[in-house]
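Researcher: Next sequence.
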Amino acid sequence: MPTAPRHPSRRAARLARRLARRLAWLMLGAAIGLAAALLAVSLVRSAAPGAPVGVVAGLTVAAAAALGLVPGARELEVTAARTMLGTDAELVLPRRPRAAHRVRTVAWVLGHQVAGLAVAAALFAGVPFAVLVAVEAVTGRPLASAVPPPAPGAGQALRVLAAAGAGTALLLAAAPVGAAAAVLAGRVLGPTPHDRLEAALARADREAEHVRLARELHDGIGHALTIVGVQAAAGRRVVEREPALAARSFEAIEDAARQALGELDALLGALRQDRAAADDRLADTAVELADVVAAHRRAGLEVTASLDLPDRLPALLHRAVRRVVAEALANAHRHGGPGAVRLVVATTPREVTVDVSNPLPTGRADRGAARRAGGRGLAGVRERAALFGGAVDAGVRGDRWVLRAVLPRPEMPEDHRDDRERQEAP
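Model: Next structure:
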């Protein structure tokens, strides 16, 4: 729906307010600059009455620039730029200022004072002088401008026009200077290249954390919901004919829901803790690998399993293996055909391998769905394997869907000891 055009008087009022605020910003800089200049000149003249003018001017500029090093100067300038200049640019208040921040703050404070003094001189000295010259040209009598009187006639008219033009330009000088300051504020008080790099790294960390949390939700809660859905459907079909079997289905639903609540509680705790502590908590509360297999068996999945997972594996690697197995069995439950699912988890001193294969569904449409199965879940499995430098191979092999994940394991002193014991054994 098109918006109604704004009234010209409102635009004029808004423009007037903007010019007034920018003029106030310039006058603030003029006041600070004048005070700093008077203080510096007074101190120099008192300490060294015969100091050259160049030395006095240099020390005055140095004193004005030093105001940018005063604690809180950048905060005040940023607030003034936002409220008085009306800049929309990104302005930075670093928690730990670097040398680049201090240099930019000094440059901005000095520029603020110079711009304010220049506009103040134009308004309070240049405009009155232009008026005085115009009055002298009209009256034909010299007053106090020290400008030679113009020739009568055309010379007087040209002098009046020149004085009027110069006075008008000086009177309106605050507008372009304020607009330029509003544009430069974002470049001087905005983020440095180091700030942008830190912001990009922080954004990448947040995105990685979001991906990690999404993967945890999919692997943990999605796995539990798969079991709940299968068991609920089975219990609904047999609740009247075989109440005992329906009761076991409801028991499996209860166990899966309890485990999901534990995973969800741990995941919510991860949002309030640092990453290392969160990983430890999630590893502690995650169900064991045998429990994952048992849960799917209770849900009606026929699983033949060979599990070789030593207790001394690092917690993160142990948890990654459980997640891979849980995702593979959940996909077999959702998309596989009737028949046994073969699961083999093997461990060597160098790696942990997870092999899962399940029959394909019988129908052509079902086979196509199986080939497309595991979109987000399979992506999560690949991401977990990549974190350890491993790889995942998944696809159709004959009449079965096969997934093989290889997760390298860090070398442990016990591994070398086991190797030596096997070599020394008769």
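Model: The chain has two domains: 15-191, 197-424. Confidence is low (pLDDT under 50) at residues 274-287, 413-426.
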